[in-house]
Specification:
heterodimer; A: 380 residues; Butyryl-Coa Dehydrogenase, subunit A, domain 1; Butyryl-CoA Dehydrogenase, subunit A, domain 2; Butyryl-CoA Dehydrogenase, subunit A, domain 3; 3 domains; 4-stranded mixed β-sheet; 4-stranded antiparallel β-sheet; 10 helices; 10 strands; 52% helix; globular; B: 312 residues; alpha/beta; Rossmann fold; 7-stranded parallel β-sheet; 9 helices
Chain lengths: 380, 312
């Protein structure tokens, strides 16, 4: 058993840490306040190859392994959760479906500009009436003369409406399977396709600089060549994508938890009460010790889930465990970070109030904690 | 014993309004070729990707990260820990400048040269990830405790063995701030040093720099092979890209020992050091605050202070 990151993994982690420290952190407060999409940062990340880490070099990626991508994500998320989720949703949800299930032509046409960071891409699964119950998908598509006619709506879709966005891959009901279940197929819808309407960005409590929108499809036509993989393979595809995505989200959770810890440690060294820095009090020390312990555990959990995936072993249960535990760890860390900061923690002048607002969605997005528990229970 | 051999001089003020009076006056007393006339606003005559390959060696040192707490050993030297070792921040500009010159001169080679412990390969690898083609590490147990002249002796020998058109240096190292290594290497090699370059241009076989001074900047040039030390204003160092990092492991790092360089152990390291650290003291941060009381016109004094600090 070897827990050591290899040379490339360490170098990429250190570089991402430096980038987050110098390029992201100083802008995080303003990005949150103005809810402005971080184009400048994302373009710098694109240039450095951070938007195509786990994809093969022949498609414009960096050719890094999955764990390396997650480690990078942790560091970027430690700088800012909005930037982190933008990178994660683009890579795990937007680009990965092309890498895993795309035809050679689709990989060249779609994956390459995504891996190079020239474009962002989004994945549309959640609907107004289909959240945790993804089988409740109502968006439907009928094949007519070689074209899919799509009608329906999607909710909370990350990266769908930026100036850099190329389009969205959506799940749609395309018929019934012999057993009566819905037949789900994934369809590629480029931005600008007539009938594809991108709604106004949501106003959010956290992840405020990330782009999140409702989408609707009104007799939107895409050619059959925009089908990702086989007809009816949509359910299997998005389960795979979500399973891998949960490991990536776990890394983001750890990044956010670590940011909570970093600020708490710093503040507890500076803040003096009763004539001493508050870090000298056991009440604060125990909070810091608990945070550090849970962060370490969360990190090991996502490392292991990523490792299982890279070994080609089943990892659904471990990915859900990592996502569940790390998001709840981040929640506890954000809570304690505000508590350690006392009244200042409630004010916007310290970053921990932003962390506290950001962390809630980590227990919701890409599978709620309740769904994770269902998945874990199913795999016991 | 330290001498700077410098080519022709020109002095150009940085401020436009100052040019006519000052540079005319200065120019009269200097002989210089008409081609680098002061009527050119910049001296960059190079065009992108022009065919003029240059062999560039960038010299880099490992220093303790500026953010870690420093302590001194019994020999009055900074204690170094492997995990705190980073590329000397000044040398990041050196590496970047080497890479920028390579981008301008197709076919050029950039070699990162470092004298340090065997573990310095990690930081050489970072230079390779930034884009350098290969690395050379000079490492030998006998090198421990080298002073600036000992270091220069080793770098000079390594540079001679590697061969180069241009050797680039940072203007100092963030740990000792001696700042004499580039000049000493130039002396050992008997080659010109263009020091404190804020801008570097390579034109044929000539290296030309601008050196910022208080009232303007000097232009100095030398025939290559030459040495150049750079200052931080010369560029903005890049981050290593993901592809750069992935490729760095495939790039070679050669290791040289004193024996490979034909140097005697007693001329370098602690044995050959003529510098001796007599004492070392930590800088104590001084917090200087002024307290204005409400009845002493505090508001006006605070406003005046903020105006003075250009906050308002």
């Amino acid at each position: 058993m070897d827990f050591t990151l290899n040379d490339e993994q360490r170098m990429i982690r250190d570089m991402c840490r430096e980038f987050a420290e110098e390029e992201i952190k100083p802008k995080a407060e303003e990005l949150d306040r103005t809810a402005a999409f971080p184009y400048e940062i994302i373009q710098k990340m694109a240039k450095l190859g951070l938007l195509g880490l786990p994809f093969p070099e022949e498609y414009g990626g960096a050719g890094a392994d999955f764990l390396t991508y997650c480690v990078a994500l942790e560091e970027i998320g430690r700088g800012d959760a909005s930037v982190g989720i933008t990178m994660e949703a683009h890579t795990s949800l937007g680009a990965t479906p092309f890498a895993l299930f795309g035809s050679e032509e689709q990989k060249r046409e779609y994956l390459t500009p995504l891996a190079q960071g020239e474009q962002l891409w989004s994945f549309g699964l959640t609907e107004p009436n289909a959240g945790s119950d993804s089988a409740g998908t109502e968006t439907h598509a009928e094949l007519e003369d070689g074209y899919w006619r799509i009608n329906g709506a999607k909710s909370f879709i990350t990266n769908a409406g930026t100036d850099m966005t190329g389009g969205v891959t959506i799940t749609a009901v395309t018929g019934k399977q012999p057993d009566g279940h819905k037949e789900i197929t994934n369809l590629i819808v480029p931005k600008g396709t007539p009938g594809y309407i991108i709604g106004a960005a949501y106003h959010k409590m956290g992840w405020r600089a990330s782009d999140t929108r409702p989408l609707s499809f009104e007799d939107c036509h895409v050619p059959d060549e925009n089908r990702l993989g086989e007809r009816g393979d949509g359910f299997r595809q998005f389960m795979t994508i979500l399973n891998m995505g949960r490991i990536a989200i776990s890394a983001l959770n750890v990044g956010l938890a670590q940011a909570c810890f970093d600020e708490s440690l710093k503040y507890s060294r500076e803040r003096r009460q009763f004539g001493k820095p508050i870090k000298s009090f056991q009440a604060i020390q125990f909070k810091l010790a608990d945070m550090a312990t849970e962060i370490e555990l969360s990190r090991l959990m996502y490392y292991k889930a990523a490792w299982l995936h890279m070994q080609g072993q089943p990892f659904t249960k471990e990915a859900s465990m990592a996502k569940l535990f790390s998001s709840e760890t981040a929640k506890r860390c954000a809570d304690q970070a505000v508590q350690i900061h006392g009244g200042y923690g409630f004010m916007d002048e310290y970053p921990v109030s932003r962390f506290w607002r950001n962390v809630k969605v980590h227990e919701i997005g890409e599978g709620t904690s309740e769904v994770q528990r269902m998945l874990i229970a199913k795999n016991l | 014993m330290l001498m700077m051999s410098i080519g022709q001089f020109d002095v150009k003020p940085a401020k436009a309004g100052f040019v006519a009076k000052c540079s005319e006056a200065l120019r009269r007393g200097l002989s210089r070729p008409p081609s680098s006339s002061a009527t050119h606003p910049t001296l960059s005559t190079n065009h992108n990707l022009e065919e003029n390959p240059v062999k560039i060696v960038v010299c880099m040192k490992e220093t303790p990260s500026t953010t870690v707490e420093k302590s001194f050993g019994p020999d009055m030297r900074i204690e170094r820990r492997k995990e705190d070792a980073v590329i000397n921040p000044f040398d990041e500009y050196t590496i970047e400048e080497g890479l920028r010159q390579q981008e301008k001169h197709a076919g050029s080679e950039v070699i990162a040269l470092c004298m340090g412990p065997a573990t310095a390969t990690d930081n050489i690898r970072r230079a390779l990830a930034m884009g350098a083609d290969r690395g050379v590490l000079v490492t030998d147990p006998a090198l421990a405790g080298s002073d600036a002249i000992g270091t220069a002796r080793v770098l000079a020998a390594a540079l001679k063995q590697i061969g180069f058109d241009l050797a680039l240096f940072g203007s100092a190292a963030a740990d000792a701030y001696g700042g004499v290594v580039p000049s000493a290497v130039a002396e050992f090699l008997g080659m010109p040093l263009l020091s404190f370059a804020g801008k570097l241009d390579i034109d044929g076989s000539t290296a030309r720099i601008e050196r910022q001074a208080e009232v303007g900047y000097q232009v100095a040039e030398a025939s290559m092979p030459a040495l150049v030390s750079v200052v931080k204003s010369i560029n903005e160092p890049r981050y290593p890209s993901m592809k750069g990092i992935m490729q760095a492991k495939k790039k070679p790092i050669d290791t040289l020992t004193l024996a490979n360089l034909g140097l005697d152990a007693d001329t370098v390291g602690a044995a050959g050091a003529r510098e001796e650290a007599l004492s070392a003291e930590k800088v104590t941060a001084q917090r200087k605050g002024e307290i204005y009381m409400g009845n002493e016109g505090a508001a006006d004094r605070i406003v005046a202070f903020l105006v003075e600090q250009k906050v308002l």
